[in-house]
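Progress narrative, Year 2. Work on SgcJ/EcaC family oxidoreductase from Streptomyces chisholmiae advanced from sequence curation to structure prediction during this period.
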Amino acid sequence: MKIDLRAHKAYLALTVIAAGTLLTGAASGGPASGAEAPAAAASHRTGEAEIRDLFDDWNAALATGDPETVADLYAPDAVLEPTLSNVIRSDRAGIVDYFEHFLRQRPVGEIDASYVELLGRDAAVDSGAYTFTLTDPETGEVSEVAARYTFVYERDRHSDAWRIVNHHSSAMPEG
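Result:
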């Protein structure tokens, strides 16, 4: 299935607008705030630390060496704009394919800078810079790749788990 990237970006923009509306309602004492909030809403409170911890989960999935385990962290219709490929992946099969190749280098990521934006209870963005340590599978040579990243997360309404809906990563131009 091919996804129209302009339509997907429009969807993301609408998601951000809707999330902003939720935040505005909460800040103004609307239904999402105070004692009027349903008990279930309290269990969905999201903090920056919770969002930052999602990178640790993703990094741990990389450490398994299993592309399916990594792909499980992405929504079924997620878009991946990967660091080491010019091909944008817009479905699970494409995401698995990318990680089949990337994981051969035994990547280990470390966050250098993280900026979290909470877009409501069920959406967040974590962007910043990270460095990957990679090991060449043929020579054993170790190298580092500094990159910029953006993870857009959305809470899955069925499982309550956070899923990556968009992941952009690009090597630093001066790196």
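Strands lie at 74-81, 108-118, 123-135, 142-155, 162-171. Helices lie at 5-27, 39-43, 48-63, 67-71, 92-102.
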